[in-house]
Design goal:
The protein is an alpha+beta fold. It is built from five helices and six strands, in the order H-H-E-E-H-E-E-E-H-E-H.
Length: about 140
Amino acid sequence: MRYDGGALPCSDPLLARWTAEGRVIPFCPEVAGGLPVPRPPAEIAGSRVLTIDGRDVTAAFLAGAEEALATGVRVAVLKDHSPSCGTSAVHDGTFRGVLRPGEGVAAALLRRHGVAVFNERELDRADAHIRRLEEGLQ
């Protein structure tokens, strides 16, 4: 579920298979950090996460990232462009729809702690990584 209550579903067969196998843990760091749905959009501006109306929600994003890490996950598939879950790009903090290279708060924390992080366009890579883990190759 998106910050505004909408959805951007991923109907990839790999995700469906992982769900059927019980491998998927639906988790939203922003909600885990105490933010409601719906809520105003937020973007990373410098070292802070701000809503479109200027409210600093950095603490909630950090708390949610810590909760994500506490799940013990070893592989994460996250929604790119999100201020929490962006893996390759995030919005630039201007609320004009402009992307810049970078990571969201949770994605960055997970990577710093050795979690393999992928986005929804990298499911094949995530699947290959999982197979290597299961085969004891990583």
